[in-house]
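Researcher: Please translate sequence to C-alpha cells.
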Amino acid sequence: MSSLALYRRYRPESFAEVIGQGHVTDPLQQALRNNRVNHAYLFSGPRGCGKTTSARILARCLNCEQGPTPTPCGECQSCRDLARNGPGSIDVIEIDAASHGGVDDARDLREKAFFGPASSRYKIYIIDEAHMVSPQGFNALLKVVEEPPEHLKFIFATTEPEKVIGTIRSRTHHYPFRLVPPGTLRDYLADVCGREGIAVEEGVLPLVVRAGAGSVRDSMSVMDQLLAGAGEDGVTYDMTTALLGYTDGSLLDSVVESFVSGDGSAAFGVVDRVIEGGNDPRRFVTDLLERLRDLVILAAVPDAAEKGLIDAPADVVERMQAQAQSFGAAELSRAADIVNEGLTEMRGAHSPRLQLELICARVMLPAAYGDERSVMARLDRIERGVQFSAGAGAPAMGYVPGPEAHAGAAGAAPAAAPVPPGGGPAAARAAVRGAGRRRCPGGCAGRRPVRRRGCGCRFR
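Model: Translation complete:
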C-alpha cells in the first residue's frame, strides 16, 4: 500500500474527475473546445475544494499535444509530466505566494515570463494563495498580466479574492468554487473506500462528511486517518465517534427522550455521563442542536430523509421520526432556540457543565417562563396529555383545586363565605379566616365578648 496521502493518491487528472464543481468545469471545457482561452484566470473558493487541482488540469489541457483540449490524452510527454505522480513540467511553474509575494519576487517573475516555453505550447504560472501577494507585488505584475506575450498564461488561486487588487481581478476570468454537497461527497468517499478495499460501517461516512465541512481535501484527510487505524472489522461507528469527538447517538436519544417525558433525573443523568465520559460539553450541545435541527425538519417534512434533507442511517432516521412525533411543534422549536442560545453562552464559560445543566433545566421547565414560546410549549404538553409532577403524591404543576375538593369531607369545617364581587385578595383572605367561627343570629360583626343592643350573643 502506498504511503502517499489519500487526497494525493486520488487527485483528479481531468475535469471529468472533479466533483461538485460543474459550474466551473463545464464552462472551462467548453472554452477549450471553442479555443477561446483567456490569458489569465482567477480561481477562488474555500480550501480543499479543487482550485489548485483545476489549475493543474487546465495547464495539462492547454499543453497537451492534441490540445488545447478538454480531455488530455494522457500519453504525450506533457501529459505524463503533469500527471498525478509525474515529475512536473519546466513550463508549468507553481508559485506559493505566501513565501514569494514581495515586489522583488514579482519583478523576477516578470523578467522570466518573457522567455518562451522550453518544450510546451504555453508557459503557465500557477500562483497559489494569491491573496498573499503584496499590493506592490501586484502592481509590479500588472503590466505583464494585462498584456502578456502569446505564450504566457496566468492562473491565480485564492481563498480570499477580495484581497486581490481590483486592477488584477478585472483582467482575469473569475471562477468561484464552492463547497461540495454532502451527498456528492459521501458517494465519492464510499467509492474511495471501495477502491481501498476496507469495510466501513454504516453511519461513518455522514460523520466524515460532517467533519470535512464540504472540503474534499479535509474529508479525505479524515478518511485517511480512519482507514489507517481500521482493524479487522474495518472502520466502525464507535471508533469514528471516539476519534472525531462526536457524541454517541445513544446519549442524544436519551436526552431527547427525557425532554419529551419531562424526566429531569434522566436528563441530568445524561449530563453526568457526558462529563464522566470525558466528552466536551460544548461538542455535546453542538451535536444536540444538530439533532434538534433534524427533528424540526422531520416534524415539518416527514419524508425529509428521502428528499436528502437529512443525512443519517435508516435506523437513526426511524428513531428520529418517532421522537419528532412525540414533540409538539412549538415545544420542539422552543427547545432548539434554548439550546442555540445556550451554545452561544457557553463560549468562554468557566463552568461548561453548569451551563449544560441550565440548558436542560430551561428546556424542561416552560412553566417557569412567561414568554410566548413557553406558553405555546405548555399548551403542546397539555394537548399531548403529559403530566409533570412536583413530587410523589403532589398535584401537578399549575393545579388549582375546585370546590369539590373540600366538599363532603368528614369533620371538615363549613365552607368559607363567598367573596363579594370586587372584594379582591384581602376580602378573600378575610372570608377564609372567618369560615370556622360561629355566626351570630343577630348578624353582629364584632369579635369581642361584649353585649350589643339587639343581640343576645357574646361570641362571634
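Researcher: Any highlights?
Model: Residues 388-417, 446-452 have pLDDT under 50 and may be disordered.
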